[in-house]
Amino acid sequence: MAFAVEVEGAAGPDEEKGRAHPVPSTFDNGLGKERIMDWGLLWYDDTAGRPLEDKVARAAAHFEKKYGQPPTLCFVHPTAKNGTDQVGNVQIEALKVVLPNCLWIGVGEIKRKTANGKRHK
Predict the structure, then answer these.
(1) Are 7 and 42 in contact (CB under 8 A)?
(2) What are phi and psi of 118, to 5 degrees?
(3) Which residues span the domain enclosing 61?
(4) Which of 30, 73, 86, 91 is such that its CA lies 20 to 30 A from the CA of 53?
(5) Do 53 and 84 touch, CB atoms closer than 8 A?
(6) Quick check: is 16 in a domain?
(7) What pLDDT score was predicted for residue 27?
(8) Which residues of the chain carry a pLDDT beneath 70?
(9) Residues 6+ apart with CB under 8 A from 15
(10) Residue 14 domain-assigned (yes or no)
(11) Residue 113 contacts residue 119 (beta carbons within 8 Å)
């Protein structure tokens, strides 16, 4: 079974009602990487035997069809990562807060921190 749930923020007081507006999310893994998801959707796929690469490809196709642009980043539970770092143009990153069988896929980037704590891509 696979399905998607939109993960977006609510409209502000002066913004168009009834339209969701994304809220950026930042996660620091404490190892010099800062992950930023600008907007995305949560994809659930518990199909036994389906490789992560296929799950990400299916989620990416749905994302592109729905939003008209391809995703760039996908967070998965650490147990699901299986050494896969990229599927097509989608970078795969492990994140503990993502539940097993879920993929948080969307538009975002990974920034690395320098020794002085400043960010760079």
Answers:
(1) yes
(2) -80, 150
(3) 2-8+21-120
(4) 30
(5) yes
(6) no
(7) 56
(8) 1-35, 111-121
(9) 21
(10) no
(11) yes
